[in-house]
């Protein structure tokens, strides 16, 4: 609720041509104004004084006049002596008027902390007090609120004639603007105050005169401006001496209320002396008393001295050595300063006196000095009495047995009184308070809060909105600053508290063009400003508007060729508007409007030439020539339109036509020099192409391979390999052979040559060599088998591969387990396949057991030592009795056929055991057999294994000592791809076959598997199933727990999409979406993860798994047919079923509803548990990885499809992604890479993450030729 807003002013807040009449500038709400009036921690008191009932003594003998005063007596003696005290010759006690005037003003409030007074006047009036000339000079442009608006409403809180249009007051400050003498009644300082001010002024002049000679001072006083410093000193001193008290004025812009307030008017005794005496007496109480009674006795003694002087005329000097004086006050510099402030003078001891006396001042009102002292003592008496009264109230418990001195002053807190007048009372503005974090917030946040005119003592959403809109109404020029404050405060509040939501208001304001300081910085960065951006120039006032406009136009032109060009152009338009308004530049705004209205864009270009988007270039040129002939006056506009289309389509043909005027015909499409090159297929090798492109982006791998691209084949391939060296080295857990070393070096040499072409070729795509493809796709074991099939013999020494254990050492309770035998290359990867790897043989002792391949798990039952174990992938995959799901290999032919589109079809033949059947004769080799053009081929995972094996083998330093050559640090493959994990197997039930219940070991790991679920798990869900699972261990259930000891720079995560249907006994590909993001934090899976968090997460994960398993059971079992069955039976009329009656249908419907309800409950609970689980790990961001590559398989079947890869442009442009689709390389958006693939057959199957800031990925490595050389 707010009135007085002007839409023209608010819309044109940035425009200097829009007048802001009657806009007084920034304001504040009552709670903040209250805190500015006086220190909110100090209480102000109203003071009411009653003339004391103290009778002056009647002297029995008139005192003789003497030049020396009589012997002094203590205050207690003077009040108890039988002889009357000495009185002044013309003693007159203060009158009631004098007592009442001791309070400075009817609107003066006493502050105990300052021992001073504050004038505070609240008044409703259309007429404001006159401003002093000095304020008009210092603030000539500060406007007063619109008087007509103020006149309409008397008070925003109690009297709004047109309804509650304003939430509360909105005050504007005018500091030191009015003279206290203009108040009604006027405030005038007393003579003693004026004298004190004069002393201070003279002291200031003397300080200034000490630096300047008389002539300089005289010139400054006369107005000579040669030296501003001299002028300031002298004029300030003169004004301080001559002027009276200046007050701050606060005016509500919405009603007639105004508030005048002074600073602290000092009391007679400086506050530091009062505080010193109080602390001294409280900390050092006199014997028989406590701190509070000692303080009371001291102040009551001083008050008694003053009362005896004023009302009894006791002018006898005070003996500071008297017992009562010493016991109640003592004597030190602090006491001396207090009495001197009261006008007493210290007289040194004379004669036999051991100590001096304090001589009272004259209070004879017939003299100027006496009147001066009389007024000062009365003010001091009121102040000391007020202080003592308040002390007595605060320490009432400690003073309950104390007999106090009679005080004639009463004090009451004035806080509620003036709060109500200001509109800041709790009944008027409820105190909901701010969260504690605001009190501890950075200075910037507090400044933003105060910028809105708000106080931390009162807060609610309505008040927040009112404060913002009131500031924009009264100070439109600074709208940006106020909106920045709103957004900053709202963000901090939601971040810490969460219960206040200003999002709707912020969205509405942004729709009106509001922006923040951060938006301005982003806008400048978007147009290329900043040291780290294209222009290498900071945007400041020295940058001309025309330069900004040209930078914007350049960005617009670049956006024409971007995939998300339309979105970019909208961003650039908004960026220029923000910069223009922040600079108050009408020139930029007009240019922006003209460009939007008349500037050529791709849409306008097609419209201008009247052609559809995507028109053929030859047709476009023809139509362009026709338009020029028809409208020659529009030739420039037509050429501009064609130029834009040429840039948008990157058409060299159109560019050449515009340059020469001649149609050059078809021109081969250019590939951007700094873009990656594609790879041509050699026959259904799309998955190999994806893998080779991936390897090329890994900088260290590329650099390690590059030197091996040698022209001397003998040096590379026929280098003598010592048998002893071979025995010392192993790769992937087994020894290697000479033939494998030679073979691997050939592969790496061809790979290095391909990398050289990818770096230097100007063609859009390069073609891998046939030898490279064969070496990558066919393993050494396959070659040996092919030789055997052709009648060759095996070479026992050169081809045999001996398995050895290469697991990292670790604490175990059982001997090292027996590993399953493998061929070359070793299956060192934890899961065995991306889309389902097939092992070469079947373990005979596993016949009749569950051996089908699911999620990449081997169909072969692993050999397990009685006390050992191997990692079993989840879930197990049964086969029917007598059915053996044979994998590919020497016993299982695999056919790979290609279609015209480059898709790959992989067919696995399954053989049913027939004990009496004779062996099959060898098959004749034909085109399209399993060997195809390269012999046997394998899936992507096996291809990756083979390539990694050969790279590591080729890079072995065979001549180096074993401890050096075999170090993980010297192997670029191990260093980049291999981490270390700890496996812990715990039996869940007793087993007589096992001596120990827990087994533990450490091992290397190259990538992590993630099972794909229909319930749309995210990446963390899938990984959690791998790191904590229940497996079968030699016939017993065991919990397999895995933790990561060390992670490599490159983290490969495979999504195991091959699932097994137990009913059809067939493998199928799951197309379920697995949510993943640009960043993953692996802290929760590390071995050193906080134990408490790990335990909490484990409990939550177990319940989450139970709910998800139940959902899977309900959706993938016979329950899923209930709905269809009920629908069919309840609606069909063609057939009659005797057993189907109303009762049956009701029961079926009830079962359907029960299942649906249980599904809803389980899914809701699973969502809650997932949220709880993420909250456990939300502060664990130490092990951070960023997404770098996504391998995609497109196809409905796991045995058929097409492969391509997305790769992030690192480190140059992390927000851009390349799509490598064989020979075609294109730029795509991040949204496409991270898109929800539900319902699509193109699904990610391998995700690659790189450790944050590891700099291991360099996506584009190109040698861009010089354009001049290219032309030659």
From TrEMBL:
Biased composition (Low complexity): 75-90, 823-833
Recorded coiled-coil stretches: 1145-1172
Domain USP: 677-1252
Residue spans of biased composition, Acidic residues class: 900-912
Swiss-Prot/TrEMBL keywords: Coiled coil, Hydrolase, Protease, Thiol protease, Ubl conjugation pathway
Domain of life: Eukaryota
Keyword set includes Magnesium: no
Reactions catalysed according to its record: Thiol-dependent hydrolysis of ester, thioester, amide, peptide and isopeptide bonds formed by the C-terminal Gly of ubiquitin (a 76-residue protein attached to proteins as an intracellular targeting signal)
EC category name: hydrolase
GO biological process, any: regulation of proteasomal protein catabolic process
Bias (Basic and acidic residues): 1-14
Single GO MF annotation: proteasome binding
Positions of the UniProt region annotated as Disordered: 1-100, 779-930
A Pfam family reported for this protein in Swiss-Prot or TrEMBL: RPT
EC number: 3.4.19.12
InterPro entries: Papain-like_cys_pep_sf, Peptidase_C19_UCH, UBP14-like, UCH_repeat_domain, USP, USP_CS
Polar residues composition-biased segments: 879-893
PANTHER family: UBIQUITIN CARBOXYL-TERMINAL HYDROLASE, UBIQUITIN CARBOXYL-TERMINAL HYDROLASE 2-RELATED
Protein name according to UniProt: ubiquitinyl hydrolase 1
